[in-house]
Specification:
The structure holds two protein chains of two kinds.
Chain A (H helix, E strand, L loop, with lengths): L23 H15 L2 H4 L5 E4 L5 E9 L5 E2 L2 E2 H14 L4 E12 L4 H18 L2 E10 L7 E11 L15 E4 L5 H8 L18 H11 L3 E5 L5 H13 L2 E5 L7 H10 L13 E4 L1 H12 L8 E7 L6 E4 L5 E3 L13
Parallel strand pairs in A: 5-6, 10-13
Antiparallel strand pairs in A: 1-2, 2-7, 3-4, 5-7, 8-11, 8-12, 9-11, 10-12, 13-14
Helix pairs in contact in A: 3-4, 6-9
Chain B lengths: L9 H14 L6 E7 H9 L10 E8 L1 H4 L2 H12 L3 E6 L13 H6 L3 E5 L2 H10 L4 E8 L4 H14 L4 E7 L2 H10 L13 E5 H7 L5 H5 L5 E4 L3 H16 L5 E3 L11 H10 E3 L2 E4 L3 E4 L3 E3 L8 H4 L15 H5 L23 H4 L4 H9 L1 H10 L1
Parallel strand pairs in B: 1-2, 1-7, 3-4, 3-5, 5-6, 7-8, 8-9
Antiparallel strand pairs in B: 10-13, 11-12
Classes of the chains: A alpha+beta, B alpha/beta.
Chain lengths: ~350, ~375
């Protein structure tokens, strides 16, 4: 089999929207430009956060993220709360306890102050609810047309308990793959409120801080827990492919075991999208050794954010690192990275 | 989901699969072409190949409107979009389709052209009205399914006398392309493939009905089953085709009775006829130049015709010479037999028609099915 990756055309190429969509084009961009430029062992681990020892002992975790969501207010959330949840979750996926965040606002000239206040208030509330403090920030105003209303960048730090070593390269054949709940809610909520694509749905974004759920999972599964990751942009499909690549394994998942709300399935059907590729902001995927799977699932289901947790498949040995799925129809197929952006089909 | 889940019932699929297995004759093979990319997508996405007997082979036809548009027309669209003052509107899945020299609408957009994705032809009217200073061009593509919505937008544009809206028309015709595949002379060096029946595209038939397929049954003796795009629809269509072949019948049958009538949508046909007429010839990716296979605007609507307004002169551009799209579309080769497949040609960097949209034969195989060759190689070693 061929597993060709095309090199970035650094002489003539330009960044296009596909490079930001969480699919393979984005993975190629990051590895071809940023990883090469910044090369170091922390970055090479390829996780959404980095764990590092502090000079006086103990370990900290750090992450950073940018939020460019459109529209800024959507069913179930807004860019402010989303920025907190996304950053808290990136820290929590390492098993660390999130402590402090920074918030950098890039605001377009002409942006309504009332909206800015509403977003900042929402961000503050989300931080308090998640048990983190926003301890520093920055504000820049750019000329009209230079930003789509408002962008937020964050950084976050957390404290990593001793003995915990979760990482995307730890999945091993035989391990169990667990998903915390239904997929695609956030992406569909966003799409339903986009100008020119408005449709009526009761779906709310699942945007939520998962650090409480993670604490319960770490307590229940202990060393059996191998890794966690939140399937945000690119959805469950991109996350499983990332993990397969990082761990050098394959996955076999069962479509029938993956929770998808009927409204989400219907919206995806209408738009020709696959829920596996649609973004989530309050879900996580965990890989656990078989001995810890039952305890982990029980602990997740006892938490409100993991009530629908399900074992969706297993890790298998596969030198091609395929994510294979048994369809609800009984056939087999690959779950691949998305190629660039997921685009609605014309007919 | 009402009216969807019923057609994805795994138990029912197993029963149809058992019926197909019981009815196929072990001493022969069955080769059917699903013309439409929607069917190709369903077959790959639901893993239907695993449910069909080994001697039933599905040949993935060219019926993806994005896939079949030739390089030269993509180049035309890019040139149009780069003109000062022009806003080009396109359906999303056109964005990545490669033109010549590595261009695409996505790349032209990244380089500064005003190219916007729309979800409906009516967005074109809205944008043209809202931005009277822009020359708005709607990139109209697709088979018979998307032609009526373009006709509706043309009708409204004419009624509203919008001076800044025009249409770059690339609508193509299903039955003509099917005929071209069926009657193409064998290519030296390629193994001939006998297509023994067609799964016809249901959405096309909701517009054109069943009559245009009659010639395949009567003149060419090839059964046609017009089928829906849900996996159970496809399974049932295969069973119906197997039965026709076994009984040596060649008829046009309608599996999609829930939406297709023999005459189709007469009002839509009439609206299309009001605005469009046949082109003498049109280039298809993978098939070459096919006479009377596409539509253009009638002369009386010249004011709405972007080709006339901007003096578009298509410069013919060739596909990559190593690309095997033509042989794959005709069923003479499988995707993995093309030496570009998975090397320089992937969904991120498509070289040929079949890899261009998710509905193309190669893209569907790459995205959903390429583990099969690997598994069979592993079993063999």
């Amino acid at each position: 089999m061929k597993a060709y990756r095309r090199k970035l055309d650094l002489a003539n190429g330009r960044v296009d929207l596909g490079h930001g969509s969480g699919g393979r084009a984005m993975a190629d961009l990051v590895s071809g430009i940023f990883r090469e430029a910044f090369a170091n062992p922390f970055l090479d681990q390829g996780n959404d956060q980095a764990a590092f020892p502090t000079p006086r002992g103990g370990r900290m975790v750090m992450t950073t993220d940018g939020y460019v969501v459109s529209p800024l207010f959507f069913p179930g959330g807004d860019i402010g709360s989303l920025a907190v949840h996304g950053t808290v979750n990136d820290i929590a996926m390492s098993g660390a306890r999130p402590l402090h965040l920074s918030a950098s606002y890039i605001v377009e000239e002409g942006f309504p102050l009332a909206d800015l206040k509403r977003i900042a208030d929402s961000m503050g509330r989300a931080a308090r609810a998640a048990g983190v403090t926003i301890v520093t920030g920055d504000t820049k105003v750019v000329e009209r047309g230079k930003a789509d209303g408002l962008f937020i960048s964050t950084a976050g730090i957390g404290e990593l308990p001793d003995g915990l070593d979760l990482s995307g390269d730890r999945a091993e054949p035989g391990d169990v793959v667990v998903l915390s709940g239904s997929i695609g809610d956030h992406g569909v909520a966003i799409m339903s409120s986009r100008e020119n694509l408005e449709f009526e749905t009761a779906i709310l974004s699942d945007s939520a801080a998962l650090n409480g759920l993670v604490e319960a999972m770490v307590a229940a599964a202990g060393p059996h827990l191998k890794l966690m990751r939140d399937p945000t942009r690119g959805g469950l499909a991109a996350t499983l492919n990332e993990l397969a690549h990082q761990s050098g394994v394959g996955f076999r998942i069962e479509e029938a075991a993956i929770p998808v709300k009927p409204e989400v399935a219907a919206a995806c059907e209408l738009l020709g999208l696959d829920p596996l590729n649609v973004a989530n902001e309050g879900k996580l995927v965990a890989v656990v050794s078989p001995a810890g799977a039952d305890a982990l699932l029980a602990a997740m289901r006892a938490h409100p954010l993991g009530a629908e947790a399900a074992a969706i498949g297993t890790v298998v040995a596969d030198d091609q690192q395929f994510v294979q799925m048994t369809t609800g129809f009984g056939g087999g197929r690959i779950v691949d990275w998305l190629s660039g952006e997921q685009l609605p089909r014309i007919c | 989901m009402k009216y969807v889940d019923e057609y994805r019932d795994g138990d029912l699929a197993a029963k149809i699969a058992a019926a197909i297995a019981a009815e196929v004759r072990p001493d022969r093979t069955y080769s059917f072409m699903e013309f439409c990319g929607g069917h190709t997508h369903a077959i790959s996405r639901y893993g239907l190949e695993d449910l069909l007997p080994a001697n039933v082979r599905m040949i993935h036809g060219p019926g993806c409107p994005v896939c079949v548009l030739p390089v030269g027309r993509i180049d035309d669209a890019v040139r149009l979009a780069r003109r000062p003052g022009v806003t080009l509107l396109t359906y999303g899945d056109m964005m990545r389709v490669p033109g010549s020299k590595g261009t695409s609408l996505l790349k032209a957009k990244a380089a500064g052209a005003d190219i916007r994705m729309v979800y409906s032809t009516l967005d074109a009217l809205r944008i043209a009205e809202a931005e009277p200073d822009r020359e708005v061009v709607f990139f109209a593509i697709g088979f018979e399914t998307t032609t009526p919505p373009t006709a509706v937008a043309l009708k409204l544009a004419a009624e509203k006398r919008l001076p800044n809206l025009s249409f770059f028309v690339n609508h193509v015709l299903t039955p003509v392309a099917m005929r071209a595949i069926l009657t193409a002379p064998p290519v030296p060096g390629e193994r001939p493939v006998a297509i023994e029946g067609f799964v016809g595209p249901a959405h096309v038939s909701t517009i054109i009905g069943l009559e245009p397929y009659r010639e395949f049954a009567e003149r060419h003796r090839k059964p046609v089953v017009v089928a829906g795009f849900e996996p159970l629809d496809v399974m049932q269509a295969v069973l119906m085709l197997v039965r026709q072949v076994n009984e040596q019948r060649a008829e046009v049958e309608n599996q999609y009775i829930r939406a297709v009538t023999p005459a189709g949508n007469v009002a839509a046909q009439s609206l299309v006829d009001r605005f469009f007429e046949l082109r003498e010839s049109f280039e298809w990716r993978g098939l070459g130049s096919v006479p009377a296979s596409a539509l253009k605007l009638r002369d009386e609507w010249a004011a709405l015709d972007a080709e006339k307004r901007f003096s578009v002169e298509t410069i013919r551009a060739d596909d990559n010479p190593a690309c095997e799209c033509g042989a794959i579309l005709r069923g003479q080769k499988r995707p993995a037999e093309c030496k570009l497949f998975g090397t320089v040609c992937t969904p991120e960097t498509p070289m040929g028609a079949c890899m261009v949209s998710s509905e193309g034969a190669c893209a569907a195989h790459w995205t959903y099915g390429r583990f099969r060759e690997h598994d069979s190689l592993r079993r063999a070693s």
